[in-house]
Design a protein that fits this description.
525 residues, mainly beta, Immunoglobulin-like, 5-stranded mixed β-sheet, 5-stranded antiparallel β-sheet, 2 helices
C-alpha cells in the first residue's frame, strides 16, 4: 500500500510539472501612464465651511480611450477619516467638513479599469468656519429692530485676497428666525481657547451669540452668576491679547468674565462712596493695573485690578505727588467733567476725552497705565476747546502707534496731534460724500492687511506697499437718509505721528448694502 501511494505521488508531480508553461519568451505589453496635469491649480487651499470648491484638471493616458478611467476624490484626515466628495474628473464640492486648525488631505485617484493602473494627486485643505475673521456690523432698517452682518475682507482678515471681500448679511435673523429687538449700541468678540462668543448690547438687553452659527445662546439674567437688579447696558469691551477677558457696564457698574467663563462675575466693588460708570478701558497687554474707569458720580478715575486678581475691588489712585517732576493732573479729582471717550493710547497710556458739564470746554487727559502706581500718574492735559468743530464732535478714537486723537463730526474727520508742550495741531483729514453722515468711528486693532502708496511711485497702484492694519486703519460707518443705505469705509493712516490719513481713494475700501449702522467691531478667528 505504501508503494502504491508513492507511485501516485510521483505520477501527480510529473503531470503538474508538464502542465507548467514557460513564460520567459512571451512579449511584454507596455501600459501608458496616467498623467494628471495640475497646471493653474493651487498647491494648497484655504476654504470656508459651506463654500464651493472647484478644481478642473486635464488627464492624459497615452492613446487609450479615457472611457476606461474612473475617478475618486476623497477628503482625508487623521484617525481614519475619509469622505468621498466626487467621482468625476473635475471637482465641484460644497465643503461640509468641520472647521479645524489641522489641514485635511484632498486626494484625487484615477484608476484604469482595464489594467487597474492608478495615479494620484493630493492637496492640503484648511477649512475655516464660514463666519470667520472679519468686521461685525450691526444695522437697522426700521429704526426699531437690529440685525448682524459680517464683512470678511483683507482689512480685517489676513487670509482674504485684496479684491475678493465676502459679506454675509442679516446673519442674526436668518439663523434665529427674528431680528434683535432694539438698536445695538455696543458689541465685542472674545475667544479663549476656542471658546468664542459675541456680546451684543441694546438699550435694554444683553445677548450672547455663537460666532460660528450666529445663534443666540444666552440672554440678560442668564449671563450673570448673580442676576443684577436691572438690565441697563452701557458698553462692552473685550481684551484679546493677554489673559483674555471682557468688561461690561450694566446699570452704572462694572462686571467681568475671564477665560472660558461664559457668565459675568459679581460687580466690582469700591468703598462707601460708591461709583457710577459709563466708560471703561482695559489695556490689551497690561504691565500693571488692568486699566481704569471713570466715575461720573465722584468725578474721578478708578483702577481696575489685574484680571488674575479679579475678585479684588476697584482701587483708588494714590494721593497726588506734586514734587518735581510735577504730574499734569490728579486722576482722583477731575472737577465737574464727564467722560466722552476712554481708550488705550501710545505706550499703554489711557486717553480720556473729557468735557466740562454745561460748558463748551473739551480736554484730552492721558494717564500712565504701567507700574509703579504712584502719585504721578497724570501724564498730560491738552485743552482742545478751540479745535475746529470740536463742539460738533460725536466720535473719538486713536492708535497705540501715535500720540494723536481723531474726532469726527457728522461729516468730517479731524486729527489732533498731541504735542509734549500741551498744545495740539489739528488738521482736517476726511470729508464724507454729500448726503451722508458719519454714524460711528473706531480704530481697527486686530488682524488684517491694508495698502499704502509706493514711496517712489505713489501714483502706481501696482507698486503699493502692504502693512498690517492693526492700529493703523480708521474705520467709519456712514448713512444716507435719502437712500436709507449705510456703508463701512476704511481709511489707512499713511503718516504716523501726525494722523495723516491716506488721501488717494484707491487705498480706501467701501463696503455697502447695510441699513443704518449703529455699532461695529472686529470678530477674531
Amino acid at each position: 500500500m505504501k508503494k502504491l501511494l508513492l507511485y501516485i505521488s510521483v505520477f501527480i508531480s510529473i503531470i503538474t510539472t508538464s502542465c507548467l508553461k514557460d513564460l520567459t519568451n512571451m512579449d511584454l505589453i507596455e501600459v501608458d501612464p496616467i498623467i494628471i496635469d495640475t497646471s493653474g491649480v493651487a498647491p494648497s487651499f484655504i476654504v470656508y465651511q459651506l463654500d464651493s470648491m472647484k478644481i478642473n484638471l486635464s488627464i492624459t493616458h497615452g492613446s487609450s480611450n479615457l472611457s476606461s478611467l474612473k475617478y475618486k476624490w476623497t477628503m482625508n484626515a487623521y484617525g481614519g477619516y475619509e469622505h468621498i466628495v466626487g467621482t468625476t474628473k473635475d471637482l465641484m464640492y460644497k465643503i461640509t467638513e468641520a472647521p479645524s486648525t489641522t489641514s485635511y488631505m484632498l486626494i484625487f485617484t484615477v484608476t484604469d479599469t482595464l489594467t487597474n493602473l492608478k495615479a494620484f494627486f493630493s492637496w492640503y485643505v484648511t477649512v475655516n468656519a464660514i463666519f470667520g475673521e472679519g468686521l461685525i456690523v450691526a444695522d437697522t432698517k426700521d429704526g426699531i429692530n437690529s440685525d448682524l452682518n459680517l464683512i470678511m475682507a483683507n482689512n480685517f482678515n489676513s487670509a482674504k485676497a485684496d479684491s475678493i471681500p465676502k459679506i454675509f448679511y442679516e446673519l442674526y435673523s436668518v439663523n434665529n428666525g427674528s431680528k434683535i429687538n432694539g438698536l445695538v449700541k455696543s458689541l465685542a468678540f472674545m475667544n479663549y481657547n476656542n471658546v468664542k462668543y459675541v456680546t451684543i448690547l441694546t438699550n435694554n438687553s444683553i445677548l450672547k451669540i455663537d460666532p460660528i452659527s450666529y445663534k443666540l445662546k444666552l440672554k440678560d439674567n442668564e449671563l450673570f452668576i448673580l442676576p443684577p437688579a436691572a438690565i441697563n447696558p452701557g458698553m462692552v469691551q473685550s481684551i484679546q491679547l493677554t489673559n483674555q477677558h471682557e468688561y461690561i457696564v450694566n446699570n452704572g457698574k462694572i462686571h467681568h468674565r475671564f477665560g472660558q467663563n461664559v457668565l459675568y462675575g459679581y460687580t466690582y466693588l469700591f468703598d462707601q462712596t460708591d461709583y457710577i460708570c459709563e466708560k471703561v478701558c482695559g489695556l490689551q497687554q497690561p504691565s500693571g493695573p488692568a486699566g481704569n474707569l471713570y466715575d461720573e458720580k465722584n468725578n474721578r478715575f478708578l483702577l481696575l485690578p489685574s484680571m488674575t486678581s479679579s475678585s479684588n475691588p476697584l482701587v483708588a489712585y494714590p494721593i497726588v505727588d506734586n514734587s518735581v517732576p510735577t504730574p499734569a493732573f490728579d486722576p482722583k479729582n477731575m472737577g465737574d467733567k464727564t467722560c466722552l471717550n476712554l481708550e488705550e493710547g501710545q505706550n499703554k497710556r489711557i486717553v480720556a476725552v473729557m468735557k466740562t458739564r454745561d460748558l463748551p470746554q473739551y480736554y484730552v487727559y492721558q494717564i500712565i497705565g504701567t507700574n509703579p502706581v504712584n502719585g504721578k500718574m497724570g501724564y498730560s492735559v491738552h485743552d482742545i476747546s478751540n479745535n475746529t468743530d470740536i463742539a460738533q464732535s460725536k466720535f473719538y478714537t486713536g492708535s497705540t502707534a501715535e500720540n494723536v486723537l481723531f474726532y469726527a463730526t457728522d461729516t468730517k474727520i479731524y486729527s489732533s496731534t498731541l504735542l509734549v508742550d500741551g498744545t495740539n495741531v489739528t488738521n482736517l483729514r476726511y470729508t464724507v460724500a454729500n448726503g451722508e453722515k458719519i454714524t460711528g468711528m473706531k480704530m481697527h486693532i486686530r488682524n488684517g492687511t491694508m495698502f499704502l502708496p509706493s514711496l517712489t511711485a505713489p501714483d502706481d497702484y501696482s507698486q503699493r506697499r502692504s502693512f498690517a492694519s492693526a492700529n493703523r486703519l480708521v474705520v467709519i460707518s456712514t448713512y444716507n437718509e435719502t437712500s436709507k443705505t449705510g456703508k463701512i469705509i476704511t481709511i489707512p493712516i499713511e503718516t504716523l505721528g501726525v494722523g495723516g490719513l491716506v488721501i488717494d481713494p484707491a487705498y480706501m475700501r467701501t463696503f455697502s448694502g447695510f441699513g443704518k449702522i449703529t455699532a461695529f467691531n472686529f470678530q477674531g478667528a
